[in-house]
Amino acid sequence: MATLWPGGARGCICLTFDNLGEAAEIELGASTEADAGDHFTATEVVPELLDHLAEHKLPATFFVEGLNTRLYPDTLKSIDTAGHEIAYHAWRHEDWRSLDAAEQTANLERGIAAFRELGIEISGLRPPGGALGEGGTGVMREAGLPYCSPAGAGAGVDAARGGAGGAAGVIALLPFQWRHVDASCLLPPLAPVREQMTGSPDPIDPAGFVDYLSSEIDRLRTEGGYLSIVLHLYLVHHWLGEESLGHILNKLSTPQVDGDLWIAPMRDVASYILEHPDAFINGAVLDPTSWT
């Protein structure tokens, strides 16, 4: 894929941030919507992060649960106003694969409508848990979304017919790999992923994660391809820390100068792929493994 990206870039990277507020906690039963509205990810992490991204001139995609249109509309507007992409991460961080096709469709339609009321148009979905489930890509086609970001590798297109409503059409696939996800450094079920990263199932500290990401970015500059970095807002605050975040952002801001890498929001990458679908046929492989 070294010659596929704009400007002759060898590789492409999407910097993404998942989860906002209490949505996932509410879904797990650890909190209630009545008690929500003052979560540190919305009040502290996002404002600081937007400043850091502006300083490094880096675009990002925020995968946000639809519930936040009720809880944190001003936070969402600040992300949008800063020029970053807001994409969908289910209504309340539901395990996407556990929903049948009709439930996925209703969930997605509800979210798109809620964001639209804020003047925000959603282009893509990242299914919580990483798996598409029964609806497949048909749910997204039917809703008019140009891309989805499930677990997997590479970047490609899916022109298959099927899923919800038998919807047809081409959709861009922009998968994430678990080894590029911060939570993989900590969660017990992801010990096999840590073995892929370091050769050991033991938890990885922030410095180790930064070193690993840096090596992957260097590899991409040489070999080409596509990579999605996944950072969770709550881990940026409680685990990664400002210094390690700064190392990642510095690493990403340097290649933009020499053109080795194209760093862009997922909606822009999806648009490029859909403009050149023949170049991306069979470019993505989805991961059916349930790590969570």
Structure report:
By secondary structure, this protein is of the alpha/beta class. It has one domain (11-280): Glycoside hydrolase/deacetylase (TIM Barrel). It is built from eleven helices and eleven strands. It has helices at 23-27, 40-56, 68-71, 73-81, 101-117, 138-143, 191-198, 206-223, 233-253, 255-258, 266-275, and strands at 11-18, 61-64, 85-88, 124-125, 147-148, 152-154, 156-158, 171-173, 225-232, 261-263, 284-286. Strands 1, 2, 3, 9 and 10 form a five-stranded parallel beta sheet that branches. The protein has a four-stranded mixed beta sheet with strand order 4-5-8-7, with helices on one face. A two-stranded antiparallel ribbon has the order 6-11. Strand 4, helix 6 and strand 5 (147-148) form a beta-alpha-beta unit. Helix 2 (40-56) packs parallel to helix 9 (233-253) and helix 8 (206-223) packs across helix 9 (233-253). The longest helix is centred in the C-terminal third of the chain and has 21 residues, at 233-253.
Notable features of this structure?
292 residues, alpha/beta, TIM Barrel, five-stranded parallel β-sheet, four-stranded mixed β-sheet, 11 strands
How many DSSP-defined strands? 11
**Chain-averaged pLDDT:** 93
The tally of structural domains comes to 1
Q: Measured on Cα atoms, how large is the radius of gyration?
A: 18 Å
Task: Output the CATH topology.
Answer: TIM Barrel
CATH class: Alpha Beta
Which oligomeric state applies? single chain
Strand fraction: 5-15%
